[in-house]
What does this fold into?
Amino acid sequence: MRRICVAPKRYQDPHPPLFQPFSISEATIRYTAQSGIVPVILTAYPPDFQRLCRMYQEVAAGAGRELALGKSVGVIRAVHFGRTEEEAVTLLRETNYAGFYNYFGGFGFWEAFRMPEDAAKYEGAMLPTSEWTVERMRKAKYALAGTVDQVKSEIESLRRIGGEGDLEWCTWFFDQGAMPGDEEMRQIELFAEHIIPAFR
It folds into this structure.
């Protein structure tokens, strides 16, 4: 027997957009650009993130896809709202940070939060657990924690890709199950009321 496939033929032609989550490496960005896949970039430090966006645009052009900077590119960030910045940071520490420290860190995801000074300090080595801090998450611009206005400003800065582009996709790393249900609903409602309309 030949040419038997258990996967059904796709209904939609062309197929729906394909996404590559937690994209960090240059190799992944190049592959997604050549293959017409949307990278959901976890790399957070703005100059590094912007460099990957430009790389995606250049490689896509080489593959015959002329795209504006930010088109067909996504990002994933943690978002936490508080009545004050301190309240939002406490929520971040108890939820997303705890998940990265206790689980995702074991898979190397803290590498997405490298800063320029890490190149000399940890050349050829992964970030040690002593560097796995809430402060690093925030300084690298992965964790957007604050009041509604602070978060909105952070997302606007992220969207503009250094003032040069217009990011198409934004994914909220939401901590479902890591906070009380009423707080989950409050976070979702704030996002729906204040963030979605501002960037729709």
